[in-house]
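Response to reviewer comment R2.3. The reviewers asked that we include at least one raw input/output pair. We reproduce the pair for NAD(P)-dependent dehydrogenase (Short-subunit alcohol dehydrogenase family) here without editing.
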Amino acid sequence: MYANFPDLKDASVFITGGGSGIGAALTDGFLAQGAKVAFVQRSDASAFCDEMQEKHGQRPLFLPCDITDIAALKRAMTEAAEAQGAITVLVNNAANDKRHKTEEVDEAFWDWSQAINLKSYFFACQQVIAGMRAAGGGSIVNFSSISYMMGGDGFPSYTTANSGINGMTRSLAREFGPDNIRVNAMAPGWVLTQRQKDLWVTPEGLAAHIDRQCLKVELVPEDMVDPVLFLASRASKAMTGQSLVVDGGVVVTG
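Raw output as returned:
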């Protein structure tokens, strides 16, 4: 059960990577509010959309797209706005935390990593501004990560992008605040998606991380939903330019 935010009913929501992992939980959570949800990702999400339609009586609009192709991303966002009304909630969620070592990174890998983890965020934000302005405002939520706050090693291009998302979020919040467009960041801790379990989770590594958390629980995708709904809704109408950490209490802000 998620918290209920009545103002999200019928809102036009666009989520990148909305058919798997945290993104799938977000799609589920927004549909539960009665929102109209469109999302993009590369892999086929038809079965997930069938599941959501059966559960909520409303089918999310799935638009296959590689978000590193900015022209394709903008086309998908235009299609979503035409189908569901001007996008008033944007959640930049898609990311790739592929492990890498600094000395092994070449330009091609760097450009690919930044294209997914930072560049696509900026241009998705750019794309929704006009529609949000015309609608009288909107909310953008950019997913970052606590990895850059921890000085995490093993993925320096990813942590660089995460830090960049924070700076971008603050600048856009300042620039578009007069249009009643709010821009905030979400910084999850180690959320145990299926991908994380398949690729990175080891019993020893997970135990060490949970030992660093104040709350001694494993974080799951559903734990990210209520915080994002809050940032998307009028419940957070006085919040912008902020980074909301949801990590079980690993890092300390302020």
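The chain has a mean pLDDT of 96. The first strand starts at residue 12 and ends at 16. Further pairs are available on request from the corresponding author.
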